[in-house]
Amino acid sequence: MESLLIVDGSNLLFQMFYGIPRKIYNAKGETIHGSIGFIGALLKIIRLINPKYICVIFDGDVPLERTKLDQDYKANRTVDWSLLPSDEVPFFEIEKIRYVLDNIKIFNYETITMEADDMISSITHQFHDNFKIYIVSFDSDFFQLINDNVSIIRYRGKNTQIYNKSFFIEKFGFTPDKYLSYKALVGDSSDNIKGIEKIGPKRATYLVTNFENYEDIVNNIEKVKPACIQDSLLNQYERYKLNLKLISLNNIKANNFDIKDFTYDENCINHTSTSLLKTLGIFN
Predict the structure, then answer these.
(1) Same structural domain, 160 and 54
(2) Domain span including residue 243
(3) What pTM value is reported for the model?
(4) Average pLDDT of the residues in 77-87
């Protein structure tokens, strides 16, 4: 089965921008360490997976639709990037990265109608029946997409980990189809989503492995141990349902894409070093 590599572009950029120990500047005084790290990581991942198709998706300036459901959604992300000097803002490197991707013939897209993770989910749902899909991201929301044909790559150089279905089960103790329920129970501090009171990872794992769903928990509440969490579960069903809506990724197929859109030229990949350096302004 042919494979499709989908890269959460903004996520990988942030990882590289803040993960490289020192800033690197080009001849114009612009930061490029995030760009160098991004392209370097991408090339290593391509060599690791050897995909037939590739697409890179970046977050655009899209209103957060989920704030209509919960005004606290991502309210913890309070950085005003406009107040920071340009060399401290990773977004300034996106244009450079996209220019490099265009030059090495890798499809890239900046979302204009939805968050990037929803777009990636849509593309995944469109193609996962006929292709092996690898999603590059540290966003744990993507775990809900894992199945026999979908894996998540957490890039850490030599310590890169691929979360396929079997590794996920080994790591969490339950199947990926239970992950959405698990996350709705524990919440997500990175997105400012509150979990159910008194329910942490261990108790959430117990619940999703011993009950079919929340309704099953409520209908068999007397069986839930310890008894001290029974009231929390009974009284916070609405919170749980809200969390499902906030955490669940878009499952509508992105039919506006053709798999051929994601074809890339391996010859371009093999001759990127000089063009990359020129494009980033390291030398003319």
Answers:
(1) yes
(2) 176-247
(3) 0.92
(4) 74
